[in-house]
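Fold it.
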Amino acid sequence: MGEFRLGDVIDDWCIKCRRLTNHSIVSLMESKPAKVRCRTCYSDHDYRNEQQPPSKKDLKKAALFGEVLAKVNPAAAEPEGNKPDGKQS
């Protein structure tokens, strides 16, 4: 699509409807949509580029997995320059 204008209809992920729906552009920033309004439930939100946000469950799983990896191999979790034997890499 060419240049966006206020009021143009675009697809985006609606947080309230939890699905991909038609949205109207409410505000622009540097010729790109910044805020949109869902044409189904009329809620305003930031433009998400048609991307579904990750679920809180998936974020929690990733954080727990990172903790487990840090416990299994703590040397990998430390910065490269701070090795316990005093050697710099």
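The two ends are 49 Å apart (CA to CA).
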